[in-house]
Amino acid sequence: MPPSLLKLVVALAAFLVLAAQTSATQHTGERKLEAGTPLGWPALRFQFTIKRSSMSVFGQTDFSMYANPVVSGKNDKVLYDVYATFTQNNTLHNYTLVDGVSYFEDTPFSSGSGVVTPVSKCINSESGDLPPVNAIAAAVSEAKNVSSSAGHSSTANECWGGNTYTVTVNGIDFSLCASGQIGFTMKGNYMDISVYYLESQIDIQAPTMDAAAARHCPTVASPSVVSPIGHSLLTGEPVSAKGIRKLKSAFDFSLDGLSPSCSCKSKPRPCVFIHGQGLQPEMEENQDSFPHYWGNLTNHAPCCSSMKYARLDTITNSWTDDTQQEKVCNRALAVSSTSSMSTIADTIIVTHSMGNLMLAGALANGKCKLDASSTWVGLAGPMKGSMASDFVQDSCAGKTNAVLEKFGEITGKCPPKGAIKSLAYEGESYSSTKLDAAYLAAQNAYKENVYALMCGEGYSGVLSKYQAKFWVLGGMIPHKSELNDGMVEFQSCAVGFPESKFGDTYRDRFYRTKLNHFDMEFLAGDSLLNEAKMPVKWFECLFLGTEMKYSPRAIVTVLAVVLCVFKHALDVAAESEARAWPSLGFHFKLKRTSMKVYGKSEFSVYANPAMSTNNTDVLYDAVASFELNEVRHNYTLSDGRAYFSRGSMGNGNTEVTCLATESSILQLINQLVTALNDAVPVSSVPTSGSNSVNCSRGSLLKASVKDVNFAVCSSVSAGLTLQGTDMDVNVEYLTTPFNLQDVHTKMDCKKTVAPTSVTPIGKSLLTGQPTLSSGRQLKAAFDFSFEGLSSCSCKSTPRPCIFIHGMGVAEEMPENQDNFTDYWGDHLADHAPCSLEVSETSTESTIADTIVVTHSMGNLMFAGALANGKCKLGASSTWVGMAGPMKGSMASDFVQQSCAGETNDVWEKIGNITGRCPVTTALKSVAYEDGDHSSKSLNAAYRAAQRAYRTYVSALMCGSGYSGILSMYQAEFWALGTMVPHKSRKNDGMVEFDSCAVGFSESRFCDSWRDRFYKTSLNHYDMQFLSGDALLNGEKMPMKWFECLL
């Protein structure tokens, strides 16, 4: 087909797709604006200008994407359907996103006649490298005002006649300029985006594809919440008055990173590239180019004074072959005039895949040496081998395999040749003692000489022709870990280097990527807006400073951390005086459902600083508000005094009460402030599970609140974040103080919070100001790791759980119930990993393979049953006791004495806890042992029950304080704790610690949820799991204790 005709066909195809249809696709519970709808939620055209050639899409650096809004019925959420079209190599590529499902439709054009058939497929969230329009829209809703945008000449943003904002998309910063009814522009280091409002809607429809395949298409985009500023920017309409009051200005900011391209800051040297397995024929000399393997690195290797490419036979020859290793040395020695006969000098060596093993083997066997002036950059090295080799050898069995015919250009075809055999996984059946020894020697050379490393932990990859094949291979090959690039596991590539050294952005010298094996040959360039997929940018910007071989000496760590802390001075010197001590917004994100506050796992607390006259101490006033069941709950901390007010929505009448320190969520703020003043710089935070910590753009520190560790990442332009096991806290600098309501004028409350002494590091973190004069005093801590996980899994044998309640339940059921939320709360379903539903191993009298959980008088009932031989507890069962009145409760004596046979006004108010007059049999039966209301027979029963209790209880939770967790019943226990004449102040409001812990030494108990014998500050009801867990208080986490117990 002639080029001119092809362009006409493409234009017509684009026009037909964008033409308005008769009606819009219907969405359940949503409305899609009809074509031709006037401006309100307009369709948008996104015009992208890519500044790096390595990020081109289908070879294009300028292209448009069209987006049509799907708005929720309440107008507070939006999801855009998206369309774009590209041509490359006589193929039309149409991209659509409809109802959150993403599709590609490819239509080939040939010079012959006839009808062409489009090929359609759906893609997942990480597979495509088109800009994520819905992520951009979501980021726009989080835009913040700035007064200026600093940057290099290529990215500086002049916003004449408009408002300037900062926007962050997937961690990448943009400067946004709003231009009223025209649209807006976003400028960044890698790309610029111009967004235009369209006069009418467009109808975007999904391509036709096989119905069975369509049913398996994943949803990759979901509606995002629209803020007032987001609505204004996405529609061109002005911000509502209500929205304007909520807007907060950010500080002036600069586009982070560098210009679109990097320059060399170290010594330019010749570069030699050594490829991996699967190539023939061999060339006797290095080549000037090798784009078939390495892609196009032109203009992306500023530190390479020249580039040469080795061409070796890596199909027939193994990496352990002596001659092959000598050839690798010869190729590397040839590129620099300063290299000797055997020492490689002033050279940058880049190795991919098996090329890493060939060079490492050559160094290990003394074939050549690497001079200190040379640098080794490793990519995707199978340093422990590859399970792909084992898979090929398994599959072939000496004959051609149909699967390998399709993927042979990646894995190698049957029969397996010498190179693929030499990559058999270390220690597995296809390896040998000799090969294992060669691996170990190569790994030592690798660890000692590699300067920078890129390894893949995911094979989703960058948009390419080979991408889909790696999706198949990644799932087909029996890798030992899901963290792999489709061919090589992360643990094989990173062997010898701690995982904590790796980061997931191109700024990290040890780069942990989502690239597949071929992407790390630089074949597909870089991803857009995904810093875990930028191999070319990584290589281009790798040598930005003085090179130095890695050494884990403490002095290097200390100096590096101190330099990071001093970075504050460079970024904020101009505004340090103006900002002084800013007000702060603490934005909490709770990771455990049991910790929700008024049903919310995300909430904010705002704080104003009050400095002492000599500026040595600080005390924050704070405010937080929650809505639940049309009631607003307000918390205020003013001058160290805590207040609580509550009132119905729309009703001006409120109740105001004083709060004790432990009862208020506002205690968190000054606890965090104290912790930040004691923060210690660290160089890394090893983590596991979902607790990854990335602080590539700021200073990394450790802070602890009541032995709960946080990783603190401080960034002057963005505030700081505290990341912990159970919660994350984002601390935002505010430009104006928050208005604290004057709720305390008529209340004489006790001061419960004291000022915190300010340290240099604390002032720097809380204000963003430099600490030049005191910076020398900072010392780096050892690297630390988070203790435990946000959620626990069962480490023992899962078994059925039976929960036996305490006193006060009137209605008896003939059988066990599936739930009893009135007593046990509704959190247990997600926090009992060792619990099964049924048991078939118990006999008529012996309880086997069962977890028995008892609360309050339930402990006495079960202990009495065991003591009297009513049943037995088998060795396979576990008894977990909580708040047991094993010596009775003084609450029983108090009620009996107070009632005197008649109702007492006090018990009318709190009788739902203690029991009302006249005193019931159950309450009488927990009269305190040897007290006035006990008897000889009851005393004897207590002692028998205590012996059974001491013999069989495996874990115990007892209260030594009744301050408790925020709840509707909390205040009643404060009254009971002081009203009941307990024999000890250590009690849960109803039961004393000594009564609960009878028979067990107090030294066995500790005040952390990690302890099997748990000494808490919970009240009696809290130990029924009714209120979940407290925030930042290890003494008040009953749910986490139970979840992680077994």
TrEMBL record:
Keyword Signal: yes
Highest taxon of source: Eukaryota
Signal peptide range: 1-24
Keywords for the protein's UniProt record, in alphabetical order: Signal
PANTHER family: CILIA- AND FLAGELLA-ASSOCIATED PROTEIN 74 (PTHR22538), VWFD DOMAIN-CONTAINING PROTEIN (PTHR22538:SF1)
Name the UniProt record assigns to this protein: Unnamed protein product
Protein species of origin: Phytophthora lilii
